[in-house]
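Researcher: Structure for this, please.
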Amino acid sequence: MTISVRYIAVSGLALIGALPLGVRAQGTLDDYRRSAAVTQKLAGLTVDVAQMPTWIGPTRFWYRKSVKGGNEFVVVDANTGTKKAAFDHAKVAPALSAATAWRDRWLGRRLRSTA
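Model: Predicted structure, token format:
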């Protein structure tokens, strides 16, 4: 009985593709803490960097941009070109910090107001 080259190639590729499945593992708690620490260290290095806009109507959209110490959310009217804060960041940041205190204690961080 002859084994075709095609059969060997397909079998080999299937085996190679299946190998990484056995060695993947979820990160440990220390891995996630290190990642959060790196994110915090790098957070203030770039400012005024806008992310992808999200349209909320035919002429309005919002986007998030980096600011010193965190992020700011901006709503834009495309017809007039006017921009304004999506909400009062100084009021919302403490409320979010209080609501997510358990998670922030675990990650070792707090939300900061940018106002």
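Researcher: Any notable elements?
Model: The helical segments are 5-23, 29-42, 89-99, 101-107. The chain has a mean pLDDT of 78.
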